[in-house]
Amino acid sequence: MDFNYTEEQLMLKDSVRKFSEKEIAPLVKWMETEKRTPRDLIKKIKDLGWCGIQYPEKYGGSGNSYIEYAIMQIEMSRVYCSTACTISVNGMLGANIMKFATEEQKMKFLPEHLNGDGIGSFAFTEPSTGSDPGALRTTCVRDGDEWVINGEKNFITNASMPGLMGIFCKDAEMGPGKCTNILIPKGIKGYSTPRIYDKMGMHGLEVCDVVLDNVRVPYENTTGGEAMRGKGFQVLLGSTQIGKLSVCAQAVGMAQAALEAAVQYSKERVQRGKPISNFQTIQSLIGDMATDVMVGHQIVLATAFKASEGKELAADAARTRLFTSEAVHRVASKAMQVMGAYSYTTEFPIERIFRDAKLTEIYEGVNEIQRLIAATDLLR
Ligand SMILES: Cc1cc2nc3c(=O)[nH]c(=O)nc-3n(C[C@H](O)[C@H](O)[C@H](O)COP(=O)(O)OP(=O)(O)OC[C@H]3O[C@@H](n4cnc5c(N)ncnc54)[C@H](O)[C@@H]3O)c2cc1C
C-alpha cells in the first residue's frame, strides 16, 4: 500500500491549484453577483481535459482515475466550490452513461460531455420528492419509436446549459413504482427552464426548475436500452455513488481553504501584544480543524481508489459523505471563531465557504438517508 501521490498526481494538483487561483478566483465576485458561470471559464477547463478527467480516452475523457478526479475536485473547491460542482454534475451524467448505457450510446453521447462541449445534468428531484423514487410524477409514455415526456423537475443543476440530461421518469407501463432513465438533449422542443434559483450559497452554480411539455426523444435514448427499462432506481443508486464522491471531495477542498484562512489570520491578528496563534484556545481550534481536514482527505482518496477499481461503493460513499460534510461544517464554523468579526464580513471568503458548505449535507441525498445506507450492510 502506497499513500504517496505519484509525480503526475502532484503535477495535476499543482496545475489545478494554479489554474483555480489564476483563472477562477478573479471571477468569484462576478459569479457570486451574477449567479452564473461564464461559459469561457468552462471552455478553459474543457481545454485542460478536466471535464472528463476520470473517464477513458476512447469516450472523450482524459484516461485518468477517480483519484485524479478527486484531486481536481478538492483543489478547485479550495478556491470556488460552485465551479467544481458544475463540472462534477457533468461527470455524474458521465457516470450515468458510463455505468448503465449501451456501448453504442456511450460512443454516441459521451464524447461531447467528457470533452466539455456539452455540460450534462442529472434530473431526479421534483416538487414532490427529492428522496423517494416511488413518488416521481414526471411520466414517460412510449409512442412508437419515441418517448413522450411530461412533468416538472426542480433543483436541476446545469439545466440552463446546453448538453444532455439523464432524466428519471415514472414508467407506468413497467408497473407500479417503476422508473426509467432517459437521455434528453436540453433545449429540445417542449423543454424550458422557467426559473434559476436564488440560493443561500453556491451562487455560481446554475440550478433550475425544468418543465417538460410533451418532450419527444427517440425510444433508443432509454439509458441502457430495453434491458434497463424500468430499472431507473438502479441507475440512480449507481450514479449517485459517484456524485457523492464529488461532494466529499468538494467538502474537503472547502475545509482546506477554511483551515488555511484561519491559520494565516491567527498568525497576523495581534491581541494583548502577540499573535492570537499563541493562545491555546486558538491552537485547540486549529488542531481540531487540521484533524478533520486530514481525515477527510484520506477517506476521500480511499473511496476514490475503490471507485477506480470498479468496486461497490454504496456504504463507503455514504460514510465518507457523512464524515466530510459534517467535518466541513465544523471546520468552517471553527475558522469563523478564529477569525472573529471579520469572518462575518464579505471581505474574507470564509463566510461564503460557511454558506456553500451547508449544501454538502443536503444534495446527492440528505445526510439522514446517508446514515441509513451507512448502517445497511452491518444490519443485514
Ligand atoms: C443547490 C442544489 C442543487 C441540486 N441539484 C440537483 C440536481 O442536479 N439533480 C437533482 O435531481 N436534484 C438536485 N438537487 C435536489 C437535492 O438532491 C434534493 O433536494 C435532496 O435530495 C433532498 O430532497 P428534498 O429536498 O425533496 O428533501 P425531502 O426528501 O423532502 O426530505 C426532507 C427531509 O426529510 C427527511 N427525510 C426524507 N426522506 C427520508 C428518509 N427516507 N429517511 C429519513 N429521513 C428522511 C430528511 O431529514 C430530509 O432532510 C439539488 C438541490 C440543491 C439545493
Count of spatially separate domains: 3
Structural class: alpha+beta
Order of helices and strands: HHHHHHEEEEEEEHEEHHHH
CATH structural class of the largest domain: Mainly Alpha
Describe the protein's topology.
Layout: H1 7-24, H2 28-34, H3 39-47, H4 66-79, H5 81-100, H6 103-114, E1 121-123, E2 139-143, E3 146-157, E4 164-170, E5 179-185, E6 191-196, E7 207-218, H7 232-268, E8 270-271, E9 274-275, H8 280-308, H9 314-339, H10 350-358, H11 367-379
Parallel strand pairs: 1-4
Antiparallel strand pairs: 2-3, 3-7, 4-5, 6-7, 8-9
The structure holds flavin-adenine dinucleotide.
Flavin-adenine dinucleotide is lined by residues 89, 122-125, 129-131, 155-157, 199, 202, 205, 207, 359, 362-366, 368-369.
What features would you highlight for this structure?
single chain, 380 residues, alpha+beta, Butyryl-Coa Dehydrogenase, subunit A, domain 1, Butyryl-CoA Dehydrogenase, subunit A, domain 2, Butyryl-CoA Dehydrogenase, subunit A, domain 3, 3 domains, 4-stranded antiparallel β-sheet, 3-stranded mixed β-sheet, 11 helices, 51% helix, globular, binds flavin-adenine dinucleotide
Tell me about this structure.
Strands 2-3-7-6 form a 4-stranded antiparallel sheet, with no helix packed on it. It has a 3-stranded mixed sheet with strand order 1-4-5. Strands 8-9 form a two-stranded antiparallel ribbon. It has 380 residues and is an alpha+beta fold. The model has no long low-confidence stretch (mean pLDDT 96). The longest helix is centred in the middle third of the chain and has 37 residues, at 232-268. It is built from 11 helices and 9 strands. The chain folds into 3 domains: 7-114, Acyl-CoA dehydrogenase/oxidase, N-terminal domain (Butyryl-Coa Dehydrogenase, subunit A, domain 1); 121-230, Butyryl-CoA Dehydrogenase, subunit A, domain 2 (Beta Barrel), CATH 2.40.110; 234-379, Butyryl-CoA Dehydrogenase, subunit A, domain 3 (Up-down Bundle). It starts with 6 loop residues before the first helix and ends with a helix. It is globular, with a radius of gyration of 21 Å. Helix 4 (66-79) packs across helix 7 (232-268) and helix 9 (314-339) runs antiparallel to helix 10 (350-358). Helix content is 51%, strand content 15%. The structure holds flavin-adenine dinucleotide (FAD). Flavin-adenine dinucleotide is lined by residues 89, 122-125, 129-131, 155-157, 199, 202, 205, 207, 359, 362-366, 368-369.
